[in-house]
Design goal:
Blueprint (H helix, E strand, L loop, with lengths): L6 H22 L43 E7 L8 E4 L5 E5 L5 E5 L4 E5 L7 E6 L6 E5 L2 E6 L4 E7 L5 E6 L6 E5 L5 E3 L6 E4 L12 E4 L5 E5 L4 E6 L5 E6 L5 E6 L6 E5 L3 E5 L6 E6 L5 E6 L5 E6 L3 E6 L5 E6 L9 E4 L6 E4 L4 E6 L21
Antiparallel strand pairs: 1-28, 2-3, 3-4, 4-5, 6-7, 7-8, 8-9, 10-11, 11-12, 12-13, 14-15, 15-16, 16-17, 18-19, 19-20, 20-21, 22-23, 23-24, 24-25, 26-27, 27-28
């Protein structure tokens, strides 16, 4: 059928059809600037503000706290794999403890069964400090002028990172698994990528940071690296770029150890002047200052709930402090002969305190008179394939 319209009607109908067609094109053509769609969110104009993690620690029976620290008692003694003890390190899940001897031998203990699982061959140098990777697949030790990264399944060296011609003191592995940092007696701290195995930067290059980096620690969010120097300055740098963020000036002697709190809201530094300082890393302010006396302080570690701080000194004494008011809660004479504390570590689950002297490692627990719970069976991680 053919439709006939008068002239003016045809013109009106044509105009109507064109209008409808124009509306259709406007609503469906993606390149039309008048397209009616939901606009994308505006691009951020600045870096997002970092939100630091807060400790979510649920108190359980046996956890070391301020109200039971007086019940801490020696529970087990672990013998080193060789003469003397250089350092110790807990795995993040508290199931493994690595113990290094002065002859370069490292042993790994199963802390649920209290059995030595395996020991490495001596590497010659003294592992001055050790750290587990966050995924528990590697164990790094700073020894002499290099960092040795072990496969804990075999306890063989997977690869080596060359440092300056100096003796290493401290080592840290960033929680995001991207960086390894090491400090030395009289050289700047060095940061590597464990993936590429290449050095990323040397702390102090191109800025006003001190030219020595003895102690190192990463913030829990892996954004900040703290470095303690021989002259008592604590340097905070961007962990990715090495850019100087802040200098903390409060010690009069070498800063031997650094430890961020589990939430990252505080930083503790221990120095050979006998002072322990708790800093606010965001402002550089001193929150609490603790006086260990005439002894040199070598180690400082936080409990998981951040309520306690333990320090080890050159007189063989471990002191446990309240982080809230700075009060001294407990003194432990770990080495009656007066030898120094070689290393100190809370178990990450908050149930144990490991104290290393020159002779052995003693595990301290809260003595509540009850038998320990049966450990859960755990599958040992497979060794990393060679190659």
């Amino acid at each position: 059928m053919r439709l006939n319209f008068p002239g003016r009607g045809w013109i009106a109908l044509t105009a109507l059809l064109l209008a409808v067609l124009a509306c259709t094109v406007t609503s469906t053509t993606p390149d039309d600037p008048t397209e009616s769609v939901t606009a994308p969110p505006p691009a951020p104009t600045a870096e997002p503000t970092a939100v630091l993690p807060t400790p979510t620690v649920t108190p359980v029976a046996g956890m070391i706290r301020r109200d039971n620290v007086d019940q801490l008692a020696p529970s087990e003694t672990l013998d080193p794999p060789g003469p003397g003890i250089g350092s110790i390190a807990w795995s993040a899940d508290s199931t493994r403890l690595a113990i290094a001897s002065d002859n370069g031998t490292i042993a790994i203990w199963d802390m649920t069964t209290l059995e030595e699982l395996r020991a490495s061959d001596p590497e010659g140098g003294i592992p001055a400090a050790m750290v587990w990777s966050p995924d528990k697949r590697s164990l790094a030790a700073v020894s002499g002028d290099e960092v040795l990264v072990y496969d804990p399944g075999r306890l063989t060296v997977s690869f080596r990172l060359q440092g300056p011609t100096d003796n290493g003191i401290r080592i840290a592995w960033s929680p995001d698994n991207r960086y390894i940092a090491a400090g030395w007696f009289n050289s700047p701290a060095v940061v590597w990528s464990p993936l590429s195995r290449n050095p990323l930067y040397t702390v102090g290059e191109g800025n006003d940071a001190p030219d020595t980096g003895v102690s190192v620690d990463f913030s829990p969010d892996s954004r900040i690296l703290a470095v303690g120097s021989v002259d008592g300055i604590v340097t905070l740098v961007d962990a990715t770029t090495g850019e100087l963020l802040r200098l903390l000036d409060g010690h009069s002697a070498e800063v031997r150890d650094l430890s961020f709190s589990p939430s990252g809201a505080s930083l503790a530094s221990a120095a050979l002047d006998g002072e322990i300082i708790i800093w606010d890393p965001a402002t550089g302010d001193i929150r609490v200052s603790l006086d260990d006396g005439d002894a040199e302080v070598y180690d400082v570690v936080w409990t998981p709930d951040e309520q306690l701080l333990a320090t080890g000194d050159s007189d063989g004494i471990v002191r446990i402090w309240s982080t809230g008011d700075g009060s001294l809660l407990r003194e432990i004479v770990a080495d009656p002969t007066g030898g120094s504390i070689n290393d100190l570590a809370w178990g990450p689950d908050g149930m144990e305190l490991a104290i290393a002297t020159g002779a052995n490692v003693t595990i301290w627990r809260v003595d509540n008179g009850s038998a320990p719970a049966e450990p859960e069976e755990e599958t040992e991680p497979e060794p990393t394939p060679e190659g």
